[in-house]
Write a structure and sequence with these properties.
74% helix, globular, mainly alpha, 4 strands
Amino acid sequence: MLVILSYVVSVLGSFTALQLAIAIPNATSAAHRWRAVAAAGLAMGGGAIWAMHFIAMLACQMNVEVTYDLPITLGSAVVAVVSCMAGLAIAGTGLFNWGKLIIAGVLMGLGVTGMHYAGMSAMLMAADTVYNSTLVMASAGIAIVASIVALWLAFNLRGWGQMLGSALVMGVAVCGMHYTGMLAASFVPNEARASLVAGGVSGGYLGVGIFVVTTALLAAVLTISLLRQRQRSMVRI
């Protein structure tokens, strides 16, 4: 069930971010632009990417007890949000072109990759994590390509149908990056690390709780954004 919820929250986060990104190139001042960048970055980095990642991590079936280091986990969320904000700011400021898009996409993709592996390092368990370097590089490649696609979609698509379709595709891309990264990891038992488990956070309903809270926040932000867009269109009329 958590796997399905992780995809749903990724799609909702992507759709919300695409809606919010409309305001970036249309901003009438630097302050408005940065507010739009922050809002879209939070939706993409915090909702579509980090929440999806953490919910999917909790869905991972392990043969040992696993808890999560809270500061590292929260730090990984900051990495995701900041990298998405940076990508949106670079691609959405001034004249849109492929050069800026690729630079922004690479920066954002590397940030997403860093978020993923920082999140993996937050796992506290009686095991060591060993990575397949080929699959790690593949996950980074998927993250970069997905980021470039996300940024292109954010500044080139309009209309509910197009954005929904794009969000569904983005959900697949984000999940693909995550599960490729998980496939790259092997866990070798190490009882010397067993004492670390007690220092982390856990809980059987943690994934569902994150889904409910994230979904509620994204839905509220999306509703407010759509109402503001409707008010602006009525004023123009």
